[in-house]
Amino acid sequence: MRARLDALLVYALLLIAAAALGYLSTRYGTTWDWTYEARASIAPQSIAVLRDLRQPLQVTSYTSPGGGLRATISGFIARYQRYKPNLSLRFIDPATNPTAVRAAGISVDGELVLRYGDRSLHLTQLSDQSFTDALANLARGGTRLVAFVSGDGERSAEGRANADLGSFMAQMAAQGVRALPLNLAQVASVPQNANLVVLASPLAQLSPGAAHALVRWLHDGGNLLWLTDPGSAHLGLAPLARELGIRALPGEIIDPGAAAAG
């Protein structure tokens, strides 16, 4: 008899515990991640960025139905939807809707377009880092323009040669950075909407007007990234060096590892 009463008491306690858990689940939205190494969670930095996005966020994926890529993208976005319920995801099949693909400027299967208010960003790499960077740029607002001085043999922001910066700028585009060519032989000053000017190793001598425009840009509080190669002291950049208070030291730094890699 005592054993039977103990069993009934255990069952009653289990029922009470189950009812309590059911009630709490309707009152509180706390969830736990029991996956290996918490793979279903996102980083605290990503959560903080999501909290800055108060308005609805729409993600459109231009992805073919076959191959399992849609399932991968859905699972990836679902981790973020746990922390932002008004984050929506929709798919467009590029094969059945080529007009939408052309209008959106889609370049690869699986490309994402993130829309937040009147701002949008394209994402071609699916990773937590790239997605969080895109979210941060949407929260910050606006596209950042980097003006590349051109016309005197500088490294190209669009080229793919070893010395060019095209691959780097392609990665920066995912973070809302856009390259803007700046030929100071054609315009007298740096555009006021530029966030940064890059002078990337010119091969020919800059005109006095071009050097003066860069000095004036610095006087006005502009940002400048100056990349230079050995033997460039004769390229008319002395006014720029004086403005910055810098001088080139003699000699060269050689990286044996890079030389061996070609």
Describe this structure in words.
- Residues 41-104 form the DUF7088 domain.
- Pfam families: ABC_transp_aux, DUF7088.
- Residues 146-256 form the ABC-type uncharacterised transport system domain.
- This protein is of the alpha/beta class and 262 residues long.
- The chain has two domains: 36-140, 3-Layer(aba) Sandwich (Glutaredoxin); 144-247, Rossmann fold, CATH 3.40.50.
- Helix content is 39%, strand content 17%.
- It contains nine helices and eight strands.
- The strands form two sheets. A four-stranded mixed sheet has the order 2-1-3-4, with helices on both faces. The protein has a four-stranded parallel sheet with strand order 6-5-7-8.
- Helix 2 packs parallel to helix 5.
- The longest helix has 26 residues, at 2-27.
- The chain is elongated.
- Residues 23-38 have low confidence and may be disordered.
**Share of helix among residues?**
25-40%
Distance between the termini: 87 Å
Question: What is the number of domains?
Answer: 2
Question: What kind of sheet is the major sheet?
Answer: 4 strands, mixed
Number of strands: 8
Q: Tell me the name of the CATH class of the largest domain.
A: Alpha Beta
Mean pLDDT: 80
Strand order of the largest sheet: 2-1-3-4
* Low-confidence runs: 23-38
- What is the tally of helical segments? 9
- Tell me the radius of gyration: 28 Å
CATH superfamily of the largest domain: Glutaredoxin
Spell the H/E element sequence. Answer: HHEHEHEEHEHEEHEHH
**What oligomeric state do these chains adopt?**
single chain
Net shape: elongated
> Which CATH-level-2 architecture of the largest domain?
3-Layer(aba) Sandwich
CATH third-tier fold name of the largest domain: Glutaredoxin
Strand content: 15-25%
Helix-and-strand structural type? alpha/beta
InterPro entries: ABC_transp_unknown, Class_I_gatase-like, DUF7088
Domain DUF7088: 41-104
Pfam family, one: DUF7088
Domain ABC-type uncharacterised transport system: 146-256
